[in-house]
């Protein structure tokens, strides 16, 4: 049976960073949380992946980031793993799959992989072992109501039941919101892109 992956990242941020495209000195988009779901063709969940990551350049999370995501400094210090380990494990989870994001998360993923390599750290697996696709333009085209929604709100703007407990800007919750939206669109006649069926 065919399967594919949806994923979402939470990465370091500060008040105004989005509007400035993380252009202020020292504002790097370091991954702090990775969430992913391996889905069947019908968008039901086969397997989940979730981890916290300890940022290197900005190891102290901003109050803005914690308020947005609910991820605390204590949880990252206690449960976060080094970026090379987290990214390698995630890429292993994605190996041989079509991997969908709702937006530019694969660009952020690539930035973080680059920083791991610049630091001379070993990274198991490669982005080239999977087919990463930003599916947001397709979702927005077949469901125009989603155009202004972030991934964690897709279920809401499509008037779907809340997919799981939790809140938006938690990577795994956002993946469930994404999967619910894909299932809904597929059930209503939208053909998922090649690699997902």
Description of the structure:
By secondary structure, the protein is of the alpha/beta class. It has a domain at 3-134: 2-Layer Sandwich (Nucleotidyltransferase, domain 5), CATH 3.30.420.10. The chain contains seven helices and five strands. The longest helix has 17 residues, at 171-187.
State the main characteristics.
alpha/beta, Nucleotidyltransferase, domain 5, 5 strands, 197 residues
The arrangement of helices and strands along the chain is EEEHHHEHEHHH
Please work out how many helical segments DSSP would assign: 7
Annotated CATH homologous superfamily of the domain at 3-134: Ribonuclease H-like superfamily/Ribonuclease H
Q: What CATH first level of the domain at 3-134 would be assigned?
A: Alpha Beta
Low-confidence spans: pLDDT under 50, at least 5 residues?
none
Largest sheet: 5 strands, mixed
Gyration radius (Cα, Å) is: 16 Å
- What is the strand tally? 5
User: Major sheet: order of its strands?
Assistant: 3-2-1-4-5
Q: State the helicity in percent bands.
A: 25-40%
The averaged pLDDT comes out at 94
Assign an overall shape: globular
CATH architecture assignment of the domain at 3-134: 2-Layer Sandwich
* CATH fold-level label of the domain at 3-134: Nucleotidyltransferase, domain 5
């Amino acid at each position: 049976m065919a399967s594919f992956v949806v994923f979402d990242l939470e990465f370091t941020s500060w008040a105004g960073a989005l509007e400035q495209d993380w252009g202020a000195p020292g504002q790097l988009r370091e991954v702090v949380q990775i969430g992913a779901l391996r889905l069947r063709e019908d968008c039901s969940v086969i397997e989940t992946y979730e981890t916290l990551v300890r940022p290197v350049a900005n190891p102290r999370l901003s109050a803005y980031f914690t308020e947005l995501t609910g991820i605390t400094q204590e949880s990252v210090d206690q449960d976060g793993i080094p970026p090379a380990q987290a990214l390698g494990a995630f890429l292993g989870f994605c190996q041989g799959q079509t991997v969908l994001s709702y937006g530019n998360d694969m660009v952020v993923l690539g930035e973080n992989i680059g920083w791991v390599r610049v630091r001379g750290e070993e990274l198991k697996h490669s982005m080239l072992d999977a087919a990463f696709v930003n599916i947001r333009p397709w979702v927005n085209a077949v469901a125009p109501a989603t155009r202004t929604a972030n991934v964690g709100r897709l279920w809401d703007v499509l008037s779907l039941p809340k997919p799981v407990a939790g809140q938006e800007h938690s990577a795994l919750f956002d993946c469930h919101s994404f999967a619910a939206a894909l299932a809904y669109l597929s059930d209503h006649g939208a053909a998922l892109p090649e690699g997902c069926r």
